[in-house]
Amino acid sequence: MRQYLKFYIDGQWADPVAPKTAEVINPATEAVSGTISLGSPADVDKAVAAARRAFATWGETSVKERLDLLEAIQEQYLKRERELGEAVTEEMGAPISLGCGFHTLLGKGHLQTAIEVLREFRFEQQRGSSLIRYEPIGVCGLITPWNWPMNQTCVKVFPALAAGCTMLLKPPQLAPYSAQILAEIIHDAGTPAGVFNLIQGQGSVIGTAMSTHPDIDMISFTGSEPVGVQIQKDAAETIKRVGLELGGKSPWIVLDDAEMANNVAGATTGMMGNSGQTCSAGSRLLVPHARLEEAIKASADAANAVTVGDPQGNFAMGPVVSKSQFNIIQDYIRKGLDEGAQLIAGGPGRPDGLDKGWYVKPTVFVGTNDMVIAREEIFGPVLVVIPYKDIDDAIAIANDSTFGLGGYVSGVDADECRQVARKMRTGAIWINGGFDFHAPFGGYKRSGNGREWGEFGFHEYLEVKSIIG
Ligand code: NDP
């Protein structure tokens, strides 16, 4: 059983001002896996005061000093990578190969990227008669979700540290362990007191205290659209900068020249990864109408081949994060059936033989873009295959969404793939499986604002000053 009852404030492990605890549930077993403390606004005040004090010196450090710290953190991260991965698996149910694989790799990648960006970044640039200076924005409030805990945390913490900001991190109650270990790593690396602080607790309490806090200069949030809206409202009174990375309903267009079976299978398996709990998941698979039957077979075969089971075992997919997420997903599957979508794999209920744990069947529907299952973010292993008439129709369907986070194009003709990508109204488009830690990541429309990853993510934590004349 894990017990994380102290917060990390001002370089020390501190008791909450008013003791209150909550149990954390292992989604694979439904059993209690540990206990955390839940903080109060008084804890936020303490942490913000520490971060403000620390900013006076950390904000003035040289690039070399910040690089030295990031490299010391990297050394500690590498030593405890396995432990981080195991914590991710326990808290949110990712298969151990994924928890200790891509989950921790993403955290490591953002750390390395922050180092690379910091090495090259020009904090002062002469433009005509003006000197343009980039300066750290100040004290940052970082609010993270449970679906990719290391990714979402590291993509905020490390650029903020590199920029010279100080911070308070609030991890999700559902997945609090890996962030706690990260705090130990940051402490052991010799981070000056107050630069990094961590408080566990309820979003409605701690998160609100952060968004409304007069001494926090910016909030970076990843999570659901309603909470993003609430944070903007809460932050309005103090005019703080708010970076939002919200949901998605990302289209994956398979072009007519593409080899259908492998591309559709890859898109289907990709959708089921992390139990479909990925904001940029390609949850609408757009295929040429003339090749629909071929696509249906490939997608159903791929979904049926996804093995589901104990995250500690050798399975491709574990449970979803919680009972509440399980119920939301089951409701969407029922809605899909009610609105007449054609079920070609999976369906309601748990997979056979799994009676405990929040396991969902890898599910594929064939439907139309006006269906609820094609419009709303399900955040589970549920894919909708949608046929298109021609490429203009495919682009129109892709863009007919309130979201605009990710997009995917599979095809042989590289020019055509890029042409299609140019016309898609989303923040990032991956062509034939591309991946780049330096490419900016963020949403158009209701998928949010601002950009994370690479140098664009670094800018989130910087103010711009003009010195004219
Ligand atoms: P939330 O948006 O509720 O949670 C994300 C983070 O915000 C958590 O740390 C949460 O705290 C915190 N939070 C909650 N309320 C507030 C508030 N009023 N002010 C400040 N912070 C707050 O997401 P859920 O966990 O409820 O997931 C629900 C849905 O959100 C999913 O089904 C999915 O559609 C979407 N989602 C999208 C993600 C993405 O990457 N874009 C990631 C996760 C979810 P706590 O939960 O600890 O109380």
Description:
With 469 residues, this protein is of the alpha/beta class. 41% of the residues lie in helices and 21% in strands. It contains 15 helices and 23 strands. A seven-stranded mixed sheet has the order 15-16-17-14-13-19-20, with helices on both faces. Strands 10-9-8-11-12-22 form a six-stranded mixed sheet, sandwiched between helices. Strand 9, helix 6 (177-188) and strand 10 form a beta-alpha-beta unit. Helix 2 (63-79) runs antiparallel to helix 4 and helix 3 (81-92) packs antiparallel against helix 6. The longest helix has 25 residues, at 96-120. The radius of gyration is 22 Å and the shape is globular. The N and C termini lie far apart (62 Å). NADPH dihydro-nicotinamide-adenine-dinucleotide phosphate (NDP) is lined by residues 143-147, 170, 172-173, 202-204, 207-208, 211, 222-224, 227, 230-231, 245-247, 279, 325, 328, 377, 379. NADPH dihydro-nicotinamide-adenine-dinucleotide phosphate (NDP) binds at residues 143-147, 170, 172-173, 202-204, 207-208, 211, 222-224, 227, 230-231, 245-247, 279, 325, 328, 377, 379.
